Amino acid sequence: MSAIHYEPVIGLETHVQLQTRSKMFCSCSAAYAGAEPNTHVCPVCLAMPGVLPVMNRQAVEYALLTGLALNCQVQEASKFDRKNYPYPDLLKGYQISQYALPFSTNGWMTVDVDGTTTRVGITRAHLEEDTAKLIHRTEDGAPRSLIDANRSGVPLLEIVSEPDIRSAAEARAYLQKLRLIVQTLGVSTGNMEEGAMRCDVNVSVRPAGSETLGTKVEVKNLNSARSVQRAIEYEIERQRRALEKGDRVLQETRGWDDDRGTTVSQRSKEEAHDYRYFPEPDLPPVFVSAEWLADLQARLPELPDQRRERYMKDLELNRYDAVQLTSSLSVSRFFEEAVRLYPNPKTLANWIQSELFRLLHERDAEIEDLAMGPADLVQLLKLEAEGTISRATAKQVLEEMARSGKAPEAIVRERELLQISDAGELERAAADAISANPQAVADYQAGKQQALGFLTGQVMRATRGKANPALVNEILERHLQEG
Fold first, then answer.
1. What is the reported pTM?
2. For residue 18, which of 78, 76, 82, 64 has the smallest C-alpha distance?
3. Count of domains in the chain?
4. Which of 65, 166, 378, 464 could disulfide-link to 341, CB 3.0 to 4.6 Å?
5. Per-residue model confidence (pLDDT) at position 218
6. Degrees (nearest 5) of the Cα angle 167, 171, 173?
7. Domain-located, residue 306
């Protein structure tokens, strides 16, 4: 076994489908999801002879806004190019894209993984058009490939990272952060399952400490953050094993088989010259004036990093809490509405990160999928703070709220979950716990403080979690010290 430690070098090419009303170069509706095949089409996106493209200004502005959000240098002059390749889903035989003069270059963003912040460079963010969709099926026992052109011409923003990523976890965090940025800007839904974001990853490995890049392998069309992480993990291990056996890693394009958890060779990797780029003759160059750029800068909303810093400064949350609460646009909105109603950020942060995140993980859901809202959580926390219910009971009520959408007061009333603070009733329960557990009593009197927690647990169990734990502790301590 080789003693060489290999380091992965990873870069991502992410295609973001922009949320415009019409397509990139024609007036057809870009809202093609669920439509009958080939109904959102016209001579332009069907590539009929003699037609001319007309640029979508909204798509250009969305591309520029994203470039600004990614700390890119926005070019004063940009142009479109023709990228030539003969795939059946590319009706013109070329794609209108950008190569020599993209809108935005030389940017960066940060990602947080396990408390470590990594800065990832952004090489470029350029605008292009999407392809049609191939549908493969069998009819009358024979294979058929059909083309649906509804997606053809929908505006895509391709964001290319520098090879600054060093782990599959960092790649996943990068993709999730990029998704959050485009959602915050409102330029895309960022929904990978629906194809609004698609990702190609470039992976190579090299001996740790080496400055020479290894042979790059591209894995195409990954449609979830989880698939990106799994594909990279597999590819790192595949390349490492090949090098340890003395084999060569081939520069190629591979696909990801999610069911088998493996990458599969598809074709040799193309280089830029293979596409025979040349300037698109039917579109003029785009000039970004200082006034236009200033207007776009003014339209930028609060971005995730700015929101995180605000939570740390204004709400006095630690960095970990702030990162977690800004990891999702829906989580941030939920938290901010809750803070407005219940100005105790740390308590809310703890509940969201522990109990709500647990529910979301168990249900594989987003926070907006829960039947409850921020006001419901606030009412629940007020019930606990007032002593109406215990913490243990509050957790039970939360689960029912998330499932049914019922108000916390209604659940407490229906299930008879009011906290027991009656001193007489708790005195009797404490006496029973002491009588039934002489060993715990002896342990406490011998100086073992954890015995008190055990006895408190017995009282809580006897009262089905409804006893006031602070009062129980006080009563138990008094009885034990007297005894």
1. 0.85
2. 64
3. 3
4. 378
5. 95
6. 115
7. yes
